[in-house]
Amino acid sequence: MRPRSLRFHELTRTEIGHWAPETTVVLPVAAIEQHGPHLPVHVDSIIAENISIAAASQANQEIPILVCPAIVYGASHHHLIYPGALSLSTETLLRVLNDLTDSLVSSGFRRIYLLNSHGGNEECVRLAARELALRHPVIAGAASYWTIAWEAILREGRAASLGIVPGHAGGFETSLMMALHPELVQTDQLPLPLQRSIPTVPKDPAAGPLVQRHGSWAAIDGYSDNAGQANAEHGKLLIDLINRAVAAEFVRFHQLL
Fold first, then answer.
1. pLDDT along the chain (257 residues), means of 10
2. Is residue 27 a contact partner of residue 104, using CB atoms and an 8 Å limit?
3. pTM to 2 decimal places
4. Which member of 69, 160, 195, 203 has the greatest number of CB atoms within 10 A?
5. DSSP symbol at 79
6. CB-based contact 238:153 (threshold 8 Å)
7. What are phi and psi of 187, to 5 degrees?
């Protein structure tokens, strides 16, 4: 037996109360911010919602799982130098995550997973999961979708041809958007290649030391690499492997408890 919908918000209070104790619940965490001159500001939210539902649909063959409405606002203060950002401070985002995960516990959930799609949220979602498991007798997980799928992305050699992974509004994200919502990609506005070297091997931003430089986003005009390298076919392939990797992570996580 499974909930009649994967979408938390389509169920009644009675259904949620019934399923909560045995169900993994996913809370997607995203952002609203500029993505260059060619992509809409809700790229991260679109990607988070699509991956969460697609991966949950696959995982649902093995486990009961629900997906909450995405938190579309994230920690995007570094994008406030451009129009379009609706940003929360990291302190506010952490409080929001704490309040919402506490609410899920109040509904009876004991397996709660924060799936992130925005680099600026990385530390907050991990800290929120850690603190949740200290406050309540639950199992909490948190990761960015690209970190979960990292090994699969590396094995798929064509990802390297797209530029930095995940980057920001570059070849990788633009390819995903071409696969998910091509009508939202303004191909006539693709930015010119940046006049600097771009790594040919993707680098997981969650790995290694963190180095931040004041003014760096202005210096690169708000995008990380050449979106002109984007490819819809590669985007579809990447979305498929990401969905499968995230689905496997949901199943693994569920079986820990």
1. 95 98 98 94 97 98 98 94 95 98 98 96 97 98 96 82 85 95 91 50 57 60 78 94 98 93
2. yes
3. 0.91
4. 160
5. G
6. yes
7. -65, -25
